[in-house]
Amino acid sequence: MAALRYRRFLKLCEEWPVDESRGGRDLGAFLRQRVAQAFREGENTQVQDPESCDHMFDSLSRINSNFYREKGYRYNFQLFSKYPRIQDTSFTEVTAEEYRMVLATDSLKQMEEMKKGMWTRLKEKFNAKSPQDGAKD
């Protein structure tokens, strides 16, 4: 039974997208790391709490498949979204693609640089050691 759980989690990891632009802050990469930790022995790993493991898999699977947005419930043989969305934007009118661009690691580094004041940037510039200074030590 542990082998079945392990294979299910591996398949979920294959399906889960990894956003390389987030550099260490991506949910897909984190999921892969946690599965590797939880199933260190692969198919031979003994699961301590099978119910919790199955519940976690079901929850992650629903997130990955956009269950609550695209699927939901059936009524009279029709499929209705549990949480329908009128628009693909948030209250700020920003699209998901724009959020991805802003949350990319490069964009966050640029914003951090912009936050620094003029004096901080000048101090960093003049306090930086040149390669010649390091050779004298």
Automatic annotation (TrEMBL):
Keywords: Mitochondrion, Mitochondrion nucleoid, Transit peptide. It is found in: Mitochondrion matrix, Mitochondrion nucleoid. InterPro entries: UQCC2 (IPR037698). It comes from the Eukaryota. GO terms for biological process: mitochondrial respiratory chain complex III assembly. Pfam families: UQCC2_CBP6. GO terms for cellular component: mitochondrial nucleoid. PANTHER family: UBIQUINOL-CYTOCHROME-C REDUCTASE COMPLEX ASSEMBLY FACTOR 2 (PTHR34260). This is Mitochondrial nucleoid factor 1.
